[in-house]
Amino acid sequence: MKVTKDLVAASATPMVLGILAEEDSYGYAILKRINELSGGELDWTEGLLYPLLHRLERLGHVESSWQSVAGERRRKYYRITDGGRAELAEQRRQWETVVGALKGIWPGSDGSRPLIALPLGGRA
Amino acid sequence: MTDDLEAQFAQWRRYLEGRRELRPADVEELEDHLRGSVDALVEVGLHADEAFLVAVKRMGSLDDLSREFAREHSERLWKQLVLTGTADGAGAGTRSRRDLPVMVLCALGAAVSVKVPELFGLTLDRDGAFYAPNAALFALPWLAGFLAWRRGAARAVVGVLVGLFALGAVAANAYPLAEDSQSVVLTAIHLVIALWFAVGLAYVSDDLRSPRRRMDFVRFTGEWFVYYVLIALGGGVLTAFTVGTFTAIGISPEGFVSRWLVPCGAVAAVVVAGWLVEAKQSVVENIAPVLTRLFTPLFTAVMLGFLVTFGLTGDGIDVEREALILFDLLLVVVLGLLLYSTSARDPLAPPGLFDKLQLALVVSALAIDVLVLLEVTGRITEYGTTPNKAAALGENVILLANLAWSAWLVLGLVRRRAPFAALERWQTSYLPVYAGWAWVVALVFPPLFGYL
């Protein structure tokens, strides 16, 4: 399965902000975390991640600084700002609306009654 | 890490450094990323060479990567090229080759249109009341046309542009204004501004909503002005030689110079300057930001000096109408400095001395604006209103709103409370307000004040 480009683009900002809300991080680690979280289904390119990080910085949602952690290379770390947290909360509300609406439409595993009849094979 | 692998990294880094979309800090960030992928691949059992190859391959095409960086950081590319059309670039290539003939065509069109009224018996030296308000209409539609063509503007946008210029023609010619009326001067000034924003619409026609694109237009305006002044200086030299050499052989070229060379050259140069900024074929690259840096401290000093003197003497601004207009112009120049330095600033740079200087500039401009506003309101209540005073009042209110909020945002920037993008967004979204006011003065004022 490949997640479509539009969906990846739309979800990129809340994902990055969400990861940075957990802890400060750097590009490669963020990409790895997204890969883990999605079970390898979301495969972001560097051309998506780094310009996005720079844009979030320009908009004041994140701050960056070069840091040298002992035993590691000098790295550019990103930290979420208060503005970024507010943006994340806003995006989260929007996504919950979308996800909630979709759950209402699709036959779910939570036992809720599907609104549309789908051929369910043996279970019918 | 083997030396061999380090050599490969060095080579890859050199390759990246050659790309003007990327800054050294970006290259370092991306190299750290590549090293992260290589380490992970070595951990799962690949040889260093293989790991490097796989990691580079995973990073994908560097063209794609640079293009994404270019989209985010358009201010970096501004110096070298102007992004036009779609990213695939196939159409853009053929377009840029046809730039020159289309530009020549537009410049010729402007030159011809300034001579067309002569067919109807109007001449430049006798019919100032016709030529002054129409001046913008001879040149700017052609510049807008050139830009709209370059951007491949959508039909709807072209329609709006045609509509705006038609509206401009109505504003310039439909009202019965006497040659010495205040409204002729007001219309002439405000129509230039209103139509320049129409040029702006053509400029941003490939991405109407983007604030960054509007900022590009502000940059364009600054550079265009510098190029135009340079062309005008060259034109002066050309005129001097034309007059001098022809007079030397006993032929008087004054008629040709004043009726053909100067008017045609002036309008054609509007298009040529626009083309030069787009094509960047000159050696004077981005001189306007340098001028801004130079004059921001000087203007701040003059305005603070004025405010201090004003406070010491204690009298009100008791001056003639012309002096009030002078103050308005001063505020417009300050706004230009603010707008232009906003457009030239690196959005990611931390607040520095220059930002504090800018805060001083904006705050002193705000103080002067309030003083002028009080004076204008006083005059209106005392002597009643005229088109000039009403126009000045409106401009001061609009500038006051912009300067006040800008001061607040620059203060936030200096105190690291607000990102630079907030100031940028405020300025770009305020641009239509100026255009709107200019249209109001040009279209509504003459009938409102009984064609005074």
What do the pLDDT scores of chain A average to? 84
* Quantity of strands of chain A, as a count: 3
Overall mean pLDDT of chain B: 84
The CATH top-level class label of the domain at 5-81 in chain A: Mainly Alpha
Describe the main β-sheet of chain B briefly: none
C-alpha geometry of chain A: globular
Percent of residues in helices of chain B comes to over 70%
Given helix and strand content, the structural type of chain B is: mainly alpha
Question: What features would you describe in this structure?
Answer:
The complex is a heterodimer of chains A (124) and B (452). With 124 residues, chain A is of the alpha+beta class. Chain A has a domain at 5-81: Winged helix-like DNA-binding domain superfamily/Winged helix DNA-binding domain (Arc Repressor Mutant, subunit A, Orthogonal Bundle), CATH 1.10.10.10. Chain A contains four helices and three strands. Chain A has helices at 5-22, 27-37, 46-58, 82-105; strands spanning 25-26, 62-68, 74-80. Chain A has a three-stranded antiparallel β-sheet with strand order 1-3-2. Chain A starts with a helix and ends in a 19-residue tail after the last helix. Chain B is mainly alpha-helical and 452 residues long. Chain B is 79% helix and 0% strand. Chain B has helices spanning 3-17, 24-43, 48-59, 62-72, 74-77, 90-119, 128-151, 155-173, 182-203, 211-248, 254-279, 287-313, 321-344, 353-383, 387-414, 420-443, 445-448. In chain B, helix 6 (90-119) runs antiparallel to helix 11, helix 7 (128-151) runs antiparallel to helix 8 and helix 12 (287-313) crosses helix 13. Mean pLDDT of chain B is 84; it is low at 81-93. Chains A and B meet through helix 2, helix 3 and strand 3 of A and helix 2, helix 4 and helix 16 of B. Chain B: InterPro entries: Perm_prefix_1. Chain B: The chain crosses the membrane at residues 102-124, 130-149, 156-178, 184-204, 225-251, 257-278, 290-311, 323-341, 353-373, 393-411, 431-449. Chain B: This is DUF4153 domain-containing protein. Chain B: It comes from Saccharothrix syringae (Nocardiopsis syringae).
